[in-house]
């Protein structure tokens, strides 16, 4: 599979860094918001989850609090939910994770023949456990094996679009930013990547990563 993006310097690209949510796996934040409301955890909105506007959400994404401390924070932030048990909260939190699209996964496996591929995701430990478990159940393999290396915000204690996360990733993989493409569905993350010096493509308007590649004719 080769890149096929009009008006983009595809011939320069040797390495591709993918975002996870909205790129590899579809995310339905509405499902988590509804599930939280049903547990009397009311007042959250989608931007709180995406951008971490609430401190306890940001701290979880940065790996600054443990899952147990997250549960305690939920009970403190939403007193009406004080009797909601931990499993119910985690089920609601993970409800946004949708089944993998097999076509995308198969394409990622083919891309590895032509590009070095990596993952850079703003995520958190409970989501990581769940989406890796979902991958094993659906494909019988380890999710991280799709990529040369995976970079997760909660392990790095950094998050997109902060410049530091791109710098630390590129220092780790030791590749030329000008030969590296970053693909994300969040405009702020794309801007951050470009400011660092990476090529970046903003996945928008219902696009899928399968739209960006074409088969190689051998």
Automatic annotation (TrEMBL):
Signal peptide (UniProt feature, chain positions): none
NCBIfam families: HAD-SF-IA-v1, HAD-SF-IA-v3
Name of the protein in its database record: HAD family phosphatase
Provenance organism: Dysgonomonas capnocytophagoides
């Amino acid at each position: 599979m080769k890149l096929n993006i009009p008006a983009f310097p595809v011939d320069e690209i040797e390495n591709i860094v993918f975002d996870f949510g909205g790129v590899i796996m579809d995310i339905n934040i509405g499902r988590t918001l509804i599930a939280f409301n049903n547990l009397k955890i009311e007042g959250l909105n989608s931007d709180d989850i995406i951008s971490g506007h609430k401190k306890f959400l940001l701290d979880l994404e940065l790996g600054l609090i443990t899952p147990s401390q997250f549960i305690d924070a939920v009970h403190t932030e939403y007193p009406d939910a004080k009797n909601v048990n931990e499993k119910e909260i985690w089920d609601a939190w993970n409800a946004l994770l949708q089944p993998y699209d097999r076509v995308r996964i198969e394409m990622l496996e083919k891309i590895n023949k032509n590009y070095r591929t990596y993952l850079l995701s703003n995520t958190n430990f409970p989501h990581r456990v769940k989406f890796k478990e979902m991958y094993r159940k659906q494909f019988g393999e380890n999710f991280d094996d799709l990529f040369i290396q995976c970079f997760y915000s909660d392990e790095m204690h950094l998050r997109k679009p902060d410049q530091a996360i791109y710098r630390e990733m590129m220092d780790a993989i030791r590749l030329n930013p000008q030969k590296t493409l970053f693909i994300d569905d969040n405009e702020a993350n794309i801007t951050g990547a470009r400011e660092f010096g990476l090529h970046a493509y903003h996945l928008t308007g219902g696009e899928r990563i399968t739209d960006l590649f074409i088969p190689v004719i051998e």
